């Protein structure tokens, strides 16, 4: 397969660490450059990726021959930039939150379908090491029938707290938390949520309870100001439970330390034994080796979809489903009601 000519829009935290190193390390991708108008970030691109071009607009990137683009910019720009890229005939990976609400997400999905262009939300956390382990255990029936999924994205960074670019903790962390719950347990019929509004108007300390159509429930927590972060996952079933503590999957830490799949090879995404979880049955329990994290597979899979050699790694309609749940959670937290879907 010929590498897909890819561009990156935005070089803030997400673009700099979650996209650029993975795009640059993928043989299936020819990274053309970064769209940014910031002189500081252009200098960062030059320092960290010598020879990589920078562009002042999506139009410049398209004129340079790009076929696809990853968008990693502030949350409120995702919909207009994604739709602008689609109208330039570019396939699009859009970072989370895919859109600020479900109607906006639906409109973007319909535009991509009308233009027959690949589109995918960047739900890289589906390929977290610990979540891949959860899915493997559930698929193998080792927990029996899953009754409750407990999941936490909790950090202690109260100042400055949730970045404005993420749109608040519900949109920022909730996009991943809800997506994982839907992947594991399927459609939702009811949503209850609580949050704390900070002085700047952004929500934090979010709790979301989901009732799934299949009978199971999900309890999800997201916080930037939790002094005692809880277990990353506790997944309960009729035959036992799987528990894995924090911190988060190690791929983020590896990227922040300057490591990539190219530098680590087969060690990419591997978790040390002391961070493996346990399969518990009352007082009895066994250690379960953690699956490798595989964020490195997302962009290559999307490139294959651009070439017509496979599906996109995440169906764009999944972004609509996630946004629908987040809209309901926002209403629940605001009005103090359980929202039926």
Automatic annotation (TrEMBL):
Highest taxon in the source lineage: Bacteria
Q: Where is the Gfo/Idh/MocA-like oxidoreductase N-terminal domain?
A: 4-116
In Gene Ontology terms, what is one molecular function of this protein? nucleotide binding
Keyword annotations: Oxidoreductase
GFO/IDH/MocA-like oxidoreductase domain ranges (all copies): 131-242
Q: Name one Pfam family in it.
A: GFO_IDH_MocA
Q: State the family named in the UniProt similarity comment for this chain.
A: Belongs to the Gfo/Idh/MocA family.
Protein's recorded name: Predicted dehydrogenase
Give the organism the record lists.
Geodermatophilus obscurus
């Amino acid at each position: 397969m010929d590498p897909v000519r890819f561009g990156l829009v935005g070089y803030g935290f997400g673009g700099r660490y979650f996209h650029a190193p993975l795009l640059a390390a993928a043989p299936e991708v020819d990274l053309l450059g970064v769209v940014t108008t910031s002189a500081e970030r252009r200098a960062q691109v030059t320092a960290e990726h010598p020879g990589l071009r920078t562009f002042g607009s999506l139009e410049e990137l398209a004129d340079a021959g790009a076929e696809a683009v990853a968008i990693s910019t502030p949350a409120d720009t995702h919909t207009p930039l994604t739709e602008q890229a689609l109208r330039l005939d570019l396939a699009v990976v859009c970072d989370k939150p895919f859109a600020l609400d479900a109607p906006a997400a639906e409109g973007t999905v319909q535009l991509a379908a009308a233009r027959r262009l690949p589109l995918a939300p960047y739900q890289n956390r589906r390929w977290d090491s610990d979540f891949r382990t959860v899915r493997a255990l559930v698929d193998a029936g080792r927990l029996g029938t899953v009754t409750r999924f407990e999941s936490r994205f909790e950090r202690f960074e109260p100042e400055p707290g949730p970045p404005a670019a993420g749109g608040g903790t519900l949109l920022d962390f909730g996009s991943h938390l809800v997506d994982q719950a839907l992947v594991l347990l399927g459609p939702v019929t009811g949503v209850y949520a609580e949050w704390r509004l900070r002085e700047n108007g952004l929500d934090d300390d979010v709790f979301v309870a989901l009732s799934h159509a299949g009978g199971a429930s999900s309890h999800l927590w997201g916080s930037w100001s939790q002094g005692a972060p809880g277990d990353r996952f506790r997944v309960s079933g009729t035959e036992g439970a799987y528990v894995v503590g924090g911190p988060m999957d190690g791929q983020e830490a590896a990227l922040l330390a300057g490591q990539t799949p190219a530098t680590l090879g087969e060690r990419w995404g591997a978790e040390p034994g002391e961070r493996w979880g346990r399969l518990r049955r009352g007082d009895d329990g066994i250690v379960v080796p953690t699956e490798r994290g595989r964020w490195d597979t997302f962009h290559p899979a999307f490139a294959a979809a651009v070439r017509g050699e496979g599906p996109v790694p995440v169906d764009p309609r999944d972004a609509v489903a996630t946004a629908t749940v987040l809209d309901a959670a926002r209403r629940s937290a605001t009005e103090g009601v359980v929202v039926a879907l």
